[in-house]
């Protein structure tokens, strides 16, 4: 368990470093939902190459690292109904809230942005209630 | 140069997500599961990530981006309805399966079909979001 926390901290520092590079180098906020969403709804056509480069490395680097880490199992549910409902909620929700764990959480809180802080409290709260209800009350997940 | 930096940032982000365990949905759902076997790892990840970012934000006050453009304008303090409704929806989906946009993309290469199905639904959701947001505004403003 303690080792998990240390790996969490090291991984977290890398995530923060990634955000710092993207901000100080390119002047952009590293928000995963914003980078993907802008490509999908066409609001970021001008910066599509930069975003595609970011996403390509985000896919390739972890894939190349998989043989060297002890645990790369995602333990993701195989239930297609849950996956589709969750995907739709995450897709719509992050876009209308204009951010997710990386944009509001990492980039927003570190800037003491009221929107980032409030969004993070709300989505963690909503996630906690969802897990409590579906796991402990209904036993679905 | 902007593309190279985007590659470096994406690569570091992906490496960090994998190393920290955030591509493992049991760790994410474990963090949200306060009535079960609570897993605090996510707090360490978030705390670790905020440190370099907070330093970076401090540096933005006195300089310009290295490779063109300008820094994002100061954070908008307004807390609109969309921020609240959207964050509730996102949190529900996040809790349901333990995935959010960064980790699901980072695990495209090894997450299998279930992960790809989630991404397909997320992309549909993102494409529908502007319409959903307008419908929400129309309904609530009329009522």
Automatic annotation (TrEMBL), chain A:
What GO terms fall under cellular component here?
A: plasma membrane
Keyword annotations for this protein, in alphabetical order, are: Cell inner membrane, Cell membrane, Membrane, Transmembrane, Transmembrane helix, Transport
Which topology term describes how it sits in the membrane?
A: Multi-pass membrane protein
Q: Where are the transmembrane segments?
A: 6-25, 52-69, 81-97, 117-138
User: Where would you find this protein in the cell?
Assistant: Cell inner membrane
Q: Which family would the database say this protein is a member of?
A: Belongs to the TsuA/YedE (TC 9.B.102) family.
For this protein, the record's PANTHER family field holds:
INNER MEMBRANE PROTEIN YEDE (PTHR30574), SULPHUR TRANSPORT DOMAIN-CONTAINING PROTEIN (PTHR30574:SF1)
| Name recorded for this polypeptide | Uncharacterized protein
Q: Per the UniProt entry, what species is this protein from, by scientific name? A: Planktotalea frisia
UniProtKB/TrEMBL annotation, chain B:
Which keywords annotate this record? Membrane, Transmembrane, Transmembrane helix
* Record-given protein name: YeeE/YedE family protein
Report if keyword Transmembrane helix is assigned.
yes
Pfam families for this protein: DUF6691 (PF20398)
InterPro entries, sorted: DUF6691
Give TM segment ranges. Answer: 41-59, 79-99, 105-129
């Amino acid at each position: 368990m303690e080792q998990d926390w240390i790996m969490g901290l090291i991984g977290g520092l890398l995530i923060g470093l990634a955000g710092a590079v993207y901000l100080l180098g390119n002047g952009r906020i590293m928000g995963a939902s914003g980078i993907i969403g802008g490509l999908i709804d066409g609001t970021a056509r001008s910066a599509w190459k930069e975003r595609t480069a970011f996403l390509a490395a985000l896919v390739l680097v972890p894939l190349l690292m998989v043989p060297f880490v002890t645990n790369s199992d995602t333990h993701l549910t195989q239930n297609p109904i849950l996956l589709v409902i969750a995907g739709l909620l995450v897709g719509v929700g992050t876009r209308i809230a204009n951010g997710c764990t990386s944009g509001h959480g990492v980039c927003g809180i570190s800037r003491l942005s009221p929107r980032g802080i409030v969004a993070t409290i709300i989505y963690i709260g909503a996630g906690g209630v969802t897990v409590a209800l579906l796991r402990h009350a209904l036993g679905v997940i | 140069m902007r593309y190279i930096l985007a590659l470096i940032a994406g690569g570091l982000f992906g490496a960090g997500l994998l190393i920290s365990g955030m591509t493992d949905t049991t760790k994410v759902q474990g963090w949200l599961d306060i009535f079960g076997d609570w897993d605090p790892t996510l707090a360490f990840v978030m705390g670790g990530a905020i440190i370099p970012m907070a330093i970076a934000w401090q540096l933005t006050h006195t300089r310009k981006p290295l490779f063109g453009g300008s820094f994002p304008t100061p954070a908008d303090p307004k807390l609109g309805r969309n921020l609240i409704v959207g964050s509730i929806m996102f949190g529900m989906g996040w809790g349901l399966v333990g995935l959010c946009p960064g980790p699901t993309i980072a695990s495209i290469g090894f997450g299998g079909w279930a992960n790809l199905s989630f991404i397909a639904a997320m992309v549909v959701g993102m494409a529908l979001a502007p319409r959903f947001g307008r419908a929400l505004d129309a309904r609530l403003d009329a009522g």
